[in-house]
Write a structure and sequence with these properties.
By secondary structure, the chain is α/β, with parallel strands linked by helices. Helices cover 42% and strands 24% of the residues. The strands form two sheets. It has a six-stranded mixed β-sheet, with helices on both faces. The protein has a three-stranded mixed β-sheet with strand order 1-2-9. Helix 3 links the parallel strand 3 and strand 4. Helix 2 crosses helix 3 and helix 6 packs across helix 8. It is globular, with a radius of gyration of 19 Å.
């Protein structure tokens, strides 16, 4: 391994496994994922504490907008599934932590999906659940965890505007270069490379059960898959050990 990559991997693993008090939030604003053998993707595991800090940062951005805007945000839609965890954390900041005079933001959901799994996309975004709150004429914030190629966010903006929202603003924790060109989020925390698969706390199992079979088909045994998950990506050993035997059974 080149010395530069060894240093980057060392920094990554420290940040993935360190106590919350040692987290370097600047590292997580432009993090580099890690590569595994025989895989075209890099992987970036985002710990719970990092997600909470990232949400707090974008919440501060929204508070600033609310303080200055002639028409502040009064509705927010969490895009399922990606927007659910950041949305729930944002609710605490934006509803209970709102400043005096700011309107209470009503939270709802919209179900949309573009990905079947890591690097597997549907041809078009699928609306799987209708908007469940009244957004007519309201400044509406759309919450997601990631802007990948910008297609989902652009689709959501057009769709929600077509459902009667007055203004549609967007928020994502992480943005990739293509998304920044196609549909930049109004609020975001960090940026990652295009070929990086971000593993958020809500999809650790999903990524494991969808990627391990790919590695297995390419010749990796159970011990090698465990090494990739735990020693390279940074998965907790107990989580890898919970699912790997089942994925290699039969």
């Amino acid at each position: 391994m080149p010395a530069e990559n060894a240093i980057l991997n060392s920094d990554y693993h420290h940040q993935v496994t360190c106590p919350a008090a040692q987290i370097d939030i600047d590292f997580w604003k432009k993090p580099r994922g890690v590569s595994v053998p025989d895989d075209e993707l890099d992987f970036l595991l985002v710990p719970d504490a990092v997600e909470a800090m990232a949400v707090a940062e974008v919440a501060r951005q929204v508070h600033g907008y609310q303080a200055d805007a002639a028409a502040p945000i009064s509705a927010a839609l969490m895009a399922t599934m990606g927007g659910m965890l950041p949305g729930i954390l944002l609710y605490d900041h934006l509803v209970h932590g709102r400043r005096d005079g700011d309107p209470r933001i009503e939270f709802g959901t919209i179900g949309v999906s573009l990905y079947k799994g890591p690097n597997e996309r549907y041809a078009e975004p699928l609306v799987q659940q209708a908007i469940d709150i009244d957004i007519a004429g309201r400044v509406t914030l759309v919450i997601d965890d990631l802007g990948d190629r910008g297609g989902t966010m652009a689709f959501l903006k057009d769709y929600i505007a077509g459902q009667g929202a007055g203004t549609v603003l967007t928020l994502a924790l992480y943005m990739k270069p293509t998304a920044l060109e196609v549909c930049p989020a109004d609020f975001h925390f960090g940026e990652v490379e295009q070929d990086t698969w971000i593993i958020t706390p809500r999809e650790m199992v999903e990524t494991l059960v969808k990627r391990v079979p790919v590695w297995r088909e390419r010749g990796a045994g159970q011990a090698e898959c465990r090494r990739r998950l735990v020693e390279i990506i940074g998965y907790p050993s107990w989580l890898a050990d919970s699912y790997l035997p089942r994925l290699f059974a039969g």
